[in-house]
Amino acid sequence: MKKYDFPKGFLWGGATAANQIEGGYKEGNKGLNIADVLPGGKERYNILMKPGFDFEIHEDQFYYPNHEAIDFYHRYEEDIALFAEMGFKAFRMSIAWTRIFPNGDETEPNEDGLAFYDRVFDELQKYGIEPVVTISHYEMPLHLVKEYGGWRNRKVVSFFERYAKAILSRYKNKVKYWMTFNEINSGLVMPINGLGFSYQSEEDKYQPTFQAYHHQLVASAIAVKACHELIPESKIGCMILFAPVYSYDSNPENVMYAMQEEQLFNYFCGDVQVRGEYPAFMNRYFKEHNISLDIQEGDLDLLKDGTVDYIGFSYYMSRTEKKVKSDADSSEGNIIGGVRNPFLETSDWGWEIDPEGLRISLNKLYDRYQKPLFVVENGLGAYDKEEEDGSIHDEYRIDYLRGHIKAMGEALEDGVGLMGYTSWGCIDMVSMSTGEFSKRYGYIYVDKHDDGSGTLKRKKKKSFHWYKDVIESNGEIL
């Protein structure tokens, strides 16, 4: 097998999110966030993709898996020791906003929450693992949603600034790598998670969505500036859900449609956060959708001054598009839309598997921005089976990851600047999109099931040992 030359100091590791692993949803004076009111199972997907969510807990109807998750809150020492055994150089995690400011609009942070992350960072430091911290990862305080309307409200910018500065100041000697908002562009399809509101109908979504985006992009720039001032040696990035958009065929109408979809979804937020200004292609989009942004004095200067140091992004799938679709074209598994690509296989959940698309993505992003790239999410959600002896032979996951790591190696040879790879779900956790435990991504199996049963016992899968060899050899052994 061809061997690849990954850079010295490459940040191999795994990625998680606080709301999907921590549990302890009311412990340490933590407040409720968006994830705490999302039920488990297929109902969650329907809520995320349709208008009209009420942001309430209905325990008589639903099970809420994020409340306990996999109990990282109490088991972080055990889990970090397993990450260290694999040889992690980096661990991507997020801080739960509601552990630090339970309602989001307090003037002083919650010491219990701050102290918890101190302990986590100290544990990582013990093993020489660099934390890569996402400031906001799909867990906006519920109070800010209900009382202020989420990111539609300008006041949320100042609340976020207070939160960001509190954690940057507290952990300035413990965290070097930061990112502002997780998959910031995902609000275009799932505004509940990313923007903190549920529009009431398809027709009224445009103005509030892009006004919310403006506030969030300003908040991101403020956090970047604060990070550079408080931690001069730090690196802070954006985080984009990236899916290259292919034209279904060579029909110029389909090619143009695919290009426009890629501009809006893949590049709109990235252009603002990396280049520091709204891209020209958005002028026509705003005009055609009757969008008029309330941009306050100084906002555009902030965007220009608060550009990121690197581009973090998730890559799970590509997307194929044509201008006129029929029901037969549907690619329902791909949550970002598109039509079925006949050249690709799919996962257990219908997500199209396209390793070459990662190489394409890396080249597109590096050509556009010429800044370091960091693949901070990539993985395979699958059903895992325990054998009679308790072992878990997840060769399908190894095959998936091997293909994508090879694609990164090829991109490096193409001349792309790539700083690290933290595969998604290094340990099994609650699925963001469906709230299921059975959609497993990890190298580490967690005995927890969709009905809430399970011992939470951790167990190494075959992929655990494989990834350990990958890291130890710096990508030579695949």
UniProtKB/TrEMBL annotation:
Pfam families attached to this UniProt entry: Glyco_hydro_1
Keywords tagged on the record: Glycosidase, Hydrolase
The keyword rRNA-binding appears for this protein: no
GO molecular function, one term: beta-glucosidase activity
Active-site residues, as the UniProt record annotates them: 377
Signal peptide (residue range): none
Gene Ontology CC, one term: cytosol
Top-rank taxon, per record: Bacteria
InterPro entries named among the record's database cross-references: GH, GH_1_N_CS, Glyco_hydro_1, Glyco_hydro_1_AS
A single GO BP: carbohydrate catabolic process
Annotated family: Belongs to the glycosyl hydrolase 1 family.
Alphabetical list of PANTHER family matching this protein: 6-PHOSPHO-BETA-GLUCOSIDASE ASCB-RELATED, GLYCOSYL HYDROLASE
Name listed for the protein in its UniProt record: 6-phospho-beta-glucosidase
Taxonomic source organism: Cytobacillus firmus
Upper taxonomic lineage: Bacteria, Bacillati, Bacillota, Bacilli, Bacillales
